[in-house]
Design a protein that fits this description.
The protein is of the alpha+beta class. The chain contains seven helices and 16 strands.
């Protein structure tokens, strides 16, 4: 379970510059902010070793490991106040860290029975993930523990998260129902994909590269974030 949670956190951190994880704001530090001070370097006595969880994404010049991820005190959160068009149809306030019963946190969040995903399009996408070797989280547990896609204040309610881990390759998927305005705000702008390569065939719009991207299917209303360190690619259409 610990390895799976590491994959989920790292995947979501890359996919969202400030993704809501357990009701807290997660940020990626830039290179300057993650460099150790001269004093810290001097005091360091443990020999550095390569982090097996590291994966470099050359396209966006980002590398991520546990040391690259932190909760930044100076990050200024801007609330949407639930006022984006259709936001309250697809999202809800996420529980805060202090309100979650962490003692009840299960050893395994995953499900085998996809029938708990009521939406047919969403269930079909979850089945595609399973067929490719991903494991799917219980959507209700994702909401209870504020793991659903969002900004830490609001989280999406209709969808799922899934992870792939064969010991060498990793992949993370977050797929939720939304409208195009919410896709543009939460997945494109909020995740920092506005300047990434974009393709749009009229039905599916995608920002990013083959290994990390966000995309939206206008016919099914599914928005998705995806990151892969060798894991199978998943698409919404």
């Amino acid at each position: 379970m610990k390895n799976k949670r590491i994959v989920e956190v790292l995947g979501s951190v890359i996919l969202a510059v400030s993704l809501g994880i357990t009701g807290c704001t997660v940020k990626i530090e830039d290179d300057k902010k993650t460099e150790k001070s001269e004093k810290e370097t001097t005091e360091e006595t443990t020999e550095e070793t390569e982090d097996p969880c590291c994966c470099e994404v050359d396209e966006c010049e980002i590398s991520y490991c546990g040391s690259c991820v932190s909760f930044e005190d100076d990050y200024e959160f801007v609330s949407t106040n639930g006022e984006l068009e259709g936001q309250l149809d697809y999202m809800e306030l996420a529980p805060r860290c202090e309100d979650i019963n962490w003692d009840a946190y299960p050893d395994d969040l995953t499900i085998d029975d996809l029938s708990v995903i009521e939406d047919e399009d969403m269930r079909n996408l979850a089945q595609e993930c399973v067929d490719c070797g991903y494991v799917v989280d219980d959507p209700e547990l994702d909401r209870i523990y504020a793991i659903s896609l969002g900004d830490g204040e609001y989280q999406f309610t209709n969808g799922f998260s899934a992870t792939y881990d064969n010991g060498n390759d990793f992949g993370t998927v977050y797929a939720y129902k939304m409208n195009e305005e919410l896709f543009d705000y939460f997945l494109v702008q909020y995740n920092g994909f506005s300047n990434e390569d974009c393709t749009d065939d009229g039905t599916v719009i995608r920002y990013g590269s083959d290994s990390y991207y966000v995309e939206y299917n206008r016919e099914t209303g599914i928005g998705m974030t995806f990151i892969s360190c060798g894991g199978p690619a998943i698409a919404v259409g």
